[in-house]
Amino acid sequence: MASETVRHGGITPEQLEQFNRDGYLIVPNALPLTTVKALLDETHSLLDSFSLADHPMTKFSTGEKSAHVGDDYFLSSGDKIRFFFEEDAFSPATGELTRPKARAINKIGHGLHALSPPFAALLDPALNPDLLGAGTTSGSVAAGRKESHPAAVARALGFRDPRCLQSMVICKQPEIGGAVPPHQDSTFLYTDPPSAVGFWYALEDATAENGCLSFLPGSHKWAPVRQRFVRMPEGGTGFVDNDGPKFPPGDDYGEKATEGGREDGEYKMGEVKAGDLVLIHGNILHKSERNTSDKGRIIYTFHVIEGEGAKYDERNWLQPSAEGFTKLYRD
Fold first, then answer.
1. CATH code of the region 2-307
2. What is the pLDDT of residues 143-168, one digit of tens each?
3. Which residues lie closer than 8 Å to 10 by C-beta, 6 or more apart?
């Protein structure tokens, strides 16, 4: 039974202990390959069909020295499907794209979980019972849905009212996929107290060659959320000092919680296969290197925050629509 739980994306007590210890967890084979194909097909359809005619050609910047994106196209994308380009997809001399548009996009975001039927079915299997393999193994379709639902994982992690607030397809494009410096997701999706967890699904193999994730194990316990990525009063976005709680509640957290914790410590590479799920604690330091290979790396990720007992900050770059953020637990 434990293997069935893993196959459908749930986590065992041993995996929960590992997540709490390390701050991240790789769950093998969380998605059937038929689901991976459906999500990849949807991704390629979106990449092929969007129009350049009225696109502001917004670039998504991840480098420490680059100006972070903060135009209206980005700031109003929470309940839309929008396309953001790799910085190196443009000619420095002419400013023109140097490759086809589908091979120039850094990410698609941020409302896929609500607006794209295949991606929405991950949060609500009733939209497509077969997407996660419900009913394809022993047991009823209803049991399969329960096992496959990310809400089961959120429950195991201790969420009382998990809310999905953003979702993205990230395309680490061949030869130009940019490096992402060490960061914490709670910097960008801050709640008081911190509560964010990332659900990161590999739709293609992510390897050392094409820029897989790397983690500083245990850093979620001692690395504080020192800064926040916010909407600036003068417009655009920027980083400000965090004057709120820097850790989730609990005695396990604090700058002295782990002896010898250092931000220049050794990162552990997280190579994964298509269909694997990576759970990412909001406080853990993680990064990825530039993709200089000829093989891309497409992944789908959404983030969950606590809706009960945690306040979502009104200064965050991403703000909810009138309907609020998507609930994982159904009434």
1. 2.60.120.620
2. 333 445 798 899 999 999 999 999 99
3. 147, 148, 152, 153, 156
